[in-house]
Amino acid sequence: MPLRLEEWLPIYRRICEDFGFSEREDILAAQRLADLIGDRVEGYLEPVRKDLPESVLICGGSPRLADELSSMSVDRYVVVADSAASVLLDAGVKTSMIVTDLDGVVEDQVELNRAGAVVFVHAHGDNRRAIEKYIPLFPGPIIGTCQCDPPKGLVNFGGFTDGDRAACICAALGAERLYLAGFDFENPSEKPGRLQEVKRRKLAWAKQILHMLAEDRVKILDATSETEIP
């Protein structure tokens, strides 16, 4: 079962306290994204819900993603979290959904969007400039998300990092088995200007959110071994 908004918002506020995030800045970013996207969510969300199968592959941004993909047959509906889009593009794997807060190689995400991948763009207090810069570049289907109370035109599915947010989105839209590739909760990938310890704390929250989905009867599985992730 998906996370309901009334379940998610208390978790979100605990995360804000943990990291010192500003809910006000999140609200401002969400409103700006809603202004730029307009009413497009109404036309795009229902087709995604209808097309989404019960079983999906969610690709995270771990450095080992390319190796994991090479060891499996990618025959599921593919969802990518932000920077993983570039790996899938390089591998020539068809991507159906992108979940991003626009800190990966956005040009690759735009290319996949042009090829038909639906993009779930996330607004938070730190990415307003990226929203302003990149939203006009996406030519295809785009749906806006946020982590605060959503303004009209945006949706809050729950989720903190792009990876666990992708899982929350898929669960909310009806997927029952989520196969994870490129997820490493202990060794976060390095990005310029990012403190590894902060990233580890974020991944600890992501893991906790995935456990909550699993407790609500959504199966979370390792894509390479096809065993449930404890």
Sum up the structure in keywords.
230 residues; sialyltransferase cstii, chain A; 45% helix; eight-stranded parallel β-sheet
Write a brief structural summary.
Helices cover 45% and strands 16% of the residues.
Provide an overview of this structure.
By secondary structure, this protein is of the alpha/beta class. The protein is built from 9 helices and 8 strands. The chain has one domain: Alpha-Beta Complex (sialyltransferase cstii, chain A). The chain has an 8-stranded parallel sheet with strand order 6-5-4-3-2-1-7-8, with helices on both faces. Helix 4 links the parallel strand 1 and strand 2. Helix 8 packs parallel to helix 9. The chain is globular. It starts with a helix and ends in an 8-residue tail after the last strand. The model has no long low-confidence stretch (mean pLDDT 93).
